[in-house]
Amino acid sequence: MSMYFSLQNLCGFEITRPVCDMAAFFDYELAESARAAAAGESGAIAAAAALSVRYDERQHIIEVCLVCGEHSFSTVEKCQLEQGSEPTGGEITRCVKLAVVHAFAQATAARPAMPWGVLTGVRPGKLAHKLLDSGKSATELPQYLEQAYLLPQQQGELLTNIAVKQKNILPDSSRFTDAGIYIGVPYCPSRCSYCSFPAGIVPQDEESQQNFVNLIEQDVLNVVQLLGMHSLAIRSLYIGGGTPTSLGDKAFARLLEVVRKHLYFPEVAEFTVEAGRPDCFSSNKLAAMEAAGVDRISVNPQTFHDKTLQVIGRRHSVDDFYRAYEEVRQSSIPVINMDLIIGLPGEDAADIDYSLHKAVELVPENLTIHTLTLKRSAALFGSKIQLPAEQAAELVEQGRELAAGVGLEPYYLYRQHYMLGHLANIGYAKPGTESIYNIQMMEERHPVIGVGPSSSTKLPLADGHHLRRMNMPKNVAVYGQGLADFCRKREELFR
Length: 495
Description:
single chain; Double Stranded RNA Binding Domain; nine-stranded mixed beta sheet; pyruvate-formate lyase- activating enzyme
């Protein structure tokens, strides 16, 4: 059960989020937020501790004092800023996090598991790239990450190796000349209980599906103009969702034809389709993908247990997955990705161990091992995750070892809020089969242009670490009604 603390912010800028993120490692929750979350309850929640945070702008130090009963615990962190310089958000936040962790560690004598140190963002790889760009060597980076961010050495080495691999695959010189294209299909045949993506149930009538493809074609034609105006070459194409293959055979084939006709230029190095649900897979759709030049496909079991598939709302069996996988393996599409999730409802360590072994037995070119994340929009949000965090961490490591045993190396990763054990989702690949789009999308160092509802267009600035971005609306009707205006807003990013 959580304890509660009060917060006095004496910094002059907002620090609530990083403070709460660090306090949570010690099972402390901000009293004000707890009261607000208690719907219908009145009265203040008593705080067991009082935390004050102050920033000394002359000395560039963060001072934290934590009072628990009759005892107080203080800590100071020196920010790595030159005298007279303006405080930067990233560095100040880092020091706030460190000071809060040290204060709670003193007060509680606890040493909680912090698999990613004080890093709480979705994209820790961006930090590794930034530090390498600033002159840090790959040899010294893991130690620096341990000292500055409390990142365990193993994770620091993982992050460093991934960043170096990515730099070799996508050199920085391509940052402003090459682009990735994402086409979003926000439909699924049913909604998985763990899913937080903004996808709806696919309309069953042919007219609605074809009207949707019409909108995508209009959007694509605008992108073609945008590419020409700014001399951008397409490096990767990715059709995702939702589940694009939830469209009927005719609409799906036409969608592929639209992409092939307007966007499949000679410079395209990768064309991926997310065909994750075996329950909407068909031979006709596979043939359409082959004809369109698709060379990477995701077929996702998530688990190798039928009981779990039923619990999470996936309308297919393990045998259905095997049939779809084998059909793709016999096709001309050379790269298959598989997704597994650690921590699904009702599964223990033995269940997950079984799924990991079954996945690697198939020797896919790409394997992405996810850790269950329950966001507010997921049906399972608020449910107690049965798998202990320690076991989840062990299974993530086991997944890495099994992947390595069949020649798969980590090449990208990302994290999410509400993730079991504060772990990470890690993508593995046979060398030479790494997904270009996944790197472009996750590290945000190259332009990515979004097409379709819920898609996002991201344009890196000259420093390579900040962005301009524009999001398409989630609702298909809103997207269609305002498409011309949304396209103009996307164009403005590039001016």
